[in-house]
UniProtKB/TrEMBL annotation:
The keyword Transmembrane applies. InterPro entries: HATPase_C_sf (IPR036890). The keyword Nucleotide-binding does not apply. This is GHKL domain-containing protein. Keywords: Membrane, Transmembrane, Transmembrane helix. It comes from the Bacteria. The chain crosses the membrane at residues 6-28, 40-59, 65-84, 91-115, 135-156, 168-190, 196-215. SUPFAM superfamilies: ATPase domain of HSP90 chaperone/DNA topoisomerase II/histidine kinase (SSF55874). Gene3D superfamilies: Histidine kinase-like ATPase, C-terminal domain.
């Protein structure tokens, strides 16, 4: 396993210098340049001596190239972590680039040897790769590759965050192994075809399997996080509702306590009188417009004095859209005509119904008609004329339908008609 060529050992001093310059520049050192490179060079040299002693003492165990290479990489990683004290991820990438440069440089040196032997298998097997010229070629290639990586890091990707590039680790490892196999087995094309194909298939399966399990675990973590956030939100809403219910319960308890404390002072007759008064006030409120309520209450008294049944059904809003004077004038003329027409009729009644559909207001007044007045045209003609003019003012219409015992007046108004009237 050891080489008899003396330059094999001297060559490592050159390699240690290249490695020290690479790692000292690639990693983030915390010491001054004058003392740091010397310490790192001595640490790498001591590491190489320890590896040499271990390889010599346990020659049978380290006879496998894979074990020897893996142990060397681990020892180099530990040395860099102890000396440079950079992050674990940055140190790992530095070691990966280190191994990649070594493998590529060795591969290129072997290709040069193959070209020198005319790509003849027998001639290549008889030639010795571990010669002074071979070492010098490999050193030059390593210096070139390490320098290229440092240039790329400084000029192209100076601020790259290696912590976020963990996904490159398996890719670099696979390519390093692939180049390693190609470099040593290039001339054994037939023997390596099956091995390389199998290696490719196994590598692809491993990468796909790792990606599958990684994605599945990420999806599970995302689902669990969303479920936890949803449960937390639900708990907050339930807690808020409970606090609100608790506050309402406290208010109810205070009200109930106050009622119980004053129950002995209550006068039943006064309560009933107040209840009847509240009921009369509630019945006098026909709609949401105060002037219309007053108008209808006034006509209610007039109908009661004439013994005429008067009913009102309003399912509309008059808060906006109409002029108060116009609306009161229209309703007053309708009810006045109905009152005069219903006098003297048997089972006299007047029914006023107002409904709303979107912006349209429909006013329908139905009444019985009895004896005719001395001047009916003058009485009802003026009222109808006013009603028709007001309906047209709000872009509506008015019509009357007279039957044998009843007369029905229907007025259609547009709440937006007041805006149109103002613009005109």
């Amino acid at each position: 396993m050891l080489n008899d060529n003396p330059f094999f050992y001297v060559n490592h001093l050159i390699l240690f210098g290249i490695w020290t310059a690479f790692h000292g520049t690639f990693l983030h050192r915390k010491e001054s340049q004058n003392t740091f490179f010397l310490k790192l060079y001595l640490a790498i040299t001591i590491n190489a001596l320890i590896n040499f002693a271990l390889f010599y003492l346990f020659a049978d165990f380290f006879s496998v190239n894979l074990i020897r290479t893996l142990f060397t990489v681990i020892m180099l990683y530990l040395v860099l972590r102890l000396m440079v004290r950079d992050t674990r991820m940055n140190t790992l990438f530095a070691v990966l680039f280190h191994v990649l440069c070594l493998v590529v440089s060795e591969m290129l040196a072997i290709l040069i040897m193959l070209a020198g032997s005319g790509f003849d298998q027998h001639a290549f097997e008889e030639a010795s790769f571990f010669t002074t010229s071979g070492f010098l070629v490999m050193d030059g290639i390593q210096g070139l590759l390490f320098g290229l990586i440092l240039i790329l890091k400084k000029l192209v990707i100076p601020n790259i965050n290696w912590q976020k590039q963990v996904r490159l680790v398996p890719l670099l490892a696979i390519h390093v192994g692939w180049i390693y196999l190609l470099s040593y087995k290039l001339i054994y094309a037939y023997e390596m075809t099956v091995n390389l194909t199998g290696f490719l298939i196994v590598s692809w399966i491993c990468v796909q399997g790792a990606a599958f399990f990684l994605i599945r675990s990420l999806l599970k973590m995302k689902t669990a996080k969303e479920r936890a956030e949803l449960e937390h939100q639900n708990n907050l809403e339930i807690q808020a509702q409970m606090m609100e219910l608790h506050a309402k319960q406290n208010v109810m308890n205070e009200v109930w306590t106050s009622i119980q404390s004053q129950a002995s002072k209550w006068n039943v007759d006064q309560i009933r009188a107040a209840y009847d008064q509240i009921g009369s006030i509630r019945n006098a409120l026909y709609c949401d417009h105060p002037s219309i309520n007053a108008l209808l209450a006034s006509f209610q008294r007039q109908f009661d004095a004439k013994n005429i049944e008067f009913t009102v059904e309003i399912k509309a809003s008059f808060v906006s859209g109409f002029d108060d004077f116009d609306l009161n004038t229209l309703l007053a003329n309708l009810l006045k005509n109905a009152l005069e027409a219903a006098q003297g009729s048997p089972q006299a009644f007047v029914h006023l119904m107002i409904t709303q559909h979107k912006q349209m207001i429909c006013i329908r007044c139905e009444n019985t008609h009895g004896r005719m007045h001395s001047n009916p045209k003058l009485i009802q003609g003026n009222g109808k004329k006013i009603i028709t003019q007001l309906a047209e003012r709000y872009h509506g219409q008015a019509q009357w339908n007279k039957q044998s015992q009843t007369t029905t007046a229907e007025v259609l108004l547009n709440k937006d008609g007041s805006k149109w009237r103002e613009t005109e």
